[in-house]
Amino acid sequence: MIFRKIDFHNTDTLVKTEKGYTMQRVPDSVRLKLNEGARDQVSFNCTGVELRFKVKSEEAVLTLRAEESSEALTAYIYYGSFQGGWQHSSKTVGTEDTRISVPRPQDVKLLESLTEECGLPFQPEVVRVILPYGKCFFVDIEGEVEPPAPQDVPEKTYLAYGSSITHGSLALAAPCSYPFQIARRLGCDYLNLGYAGSAYLEREMAEYIVSRKDWDFASVEMGINMLYGDFDTAQFECRVRDFVDILSADGRPVFATDIFRFNGGREFQKKAEIFRGIVKKYADGRLVFTDGLKLLNDPAFISQDLIHPSQEGIGRIAENWSKIMERYLLSHGC
Question: In CATH terms, is domain 2-146 a member of 2.60.120.260?
C-alpha cells in the first residue's frame, strides 16, 4: 500500500495509534477469524515489511519507533539489491522516536550498470528500509520521496506462510530469514506471512492466500506450531486436509513442507513423526512436497531452545529449498 509516497510492502492496513501507525499484514476480514495470538499480536508484527521509496531530495529522514522487545529491533537499509554501506546499513529502532537518515544513493549510474550486468532484480534508486520482525510504528518522513515504479521491482513474487521459522525468529536479521534468502537466490520479490507461534492452518488464511493475485509461487510450512499447541492428531489432520484442498485448487505452484529437524523431547519427536506423515499424506502429489528433514536435519544447526533453527540452519533451509523451487519452476516454465 502507498502512504505518504512510501510503498509499505507486505502491509495491508495502517492503523493509527498514539505512538504512530502500526503495520497490519492481513485485512480485518481475515485477521479477526484467526487464533488469538495471530489476531491480536502477530498480524501487527513487521515480518517482511519494507518501506520502499526513491529519494528525490538530498536525503530523506524516517521516524520510526518500536515496542519493547527481548531482542534488538534493527532496520536494514538496501539500495535496490545492494546492502547499504556501513554508514547507512542498519539502525536500531528504539522505543522512543528514532530518526533514520537515508541519503540519496551515490554513483547511481554505476550501480545501475552493475544491476544490469549481474541480473539483479531491484533498481538501485529504490531505497528499501527492511523492518525487524517485532512490532514497529511509522511516525513520519521528511524530505522529497516517491514510490517505486513497477519496473523498479522484480516481476515475480514469492509468498511464504508458516511458523516463527518462516517469520524470521532467530534469523537475527530480517534479510537472513529464509523467505528473504530464497527470494534473493531466485531473483524475485517476496511476501512473508510467517506467524510466530500461531500458524494454525486456518481455512480463512488459505482462502486469503489464494485470493491474492500478487504472487506467482508460494511455500507453506506446516506443523511445528500445532505440535506444541493444544491440537490432537485428528484436529491437525482436519486442518491440513482443508488447507491443502484450498491451495491445490488454485493452480499456481505451492511448495509444501512439514516439520524441520528440532531437538525437543522424545514425546514431541513421536508426535512429530505422526504429523509429518499427515502432511505428506495430503500434500504429496497435490502440492510440491518436500520432507522437512530433507531441508534441515542437522542437530548442530538448532538453537539452544531446541526448536528454532540457528542462523546456519535457516541458511541451510534457504539453500536446499531454493534449489528445489528453481528446478521445478524452470522445468514447468514458471
Answer: yes
The reported pTM is 0.97
Where does the chain show beta strands of DSSP type E? 2-3, 6-9, 13-17, 20-24, 50-55, 59-66, 74-79, 82-83, 90-92, 98-103, 126-130, 136-142, 145-146, 157-162, 189-194, 217-221, 254-257, 288-290
- Which option is the CATH number for 157-332: 3.40.30.10, 3.40.50.1110, 3.40.50.1820, 3.30.499.10? 3.40.50.1110
pLDDT in tens, the chain (334 residues): 999 999 999 999 999 999 999 999 999 999 999 999 999 999 999 999 999 999 999 999 999 999 998 888 999 999 999 999 988 999 999 999 999 999 999 899 999 999 999 999 999 999 999 999 999 999 999 999 999 999 999 999 999 999 999 999 999 999 999 999 999 999 999 999 999 999 999 999 999 999 999 999 999 999 999 999 889 999 999 999 999 999 999 999 999 999 999 999 988 999 999 999 999 999 999 999 999 999 999 999 999 999 999 999 999 999 999 999 999 999 998 8
Tell me whether domains 2-146 and 157-332 share a fold.
no
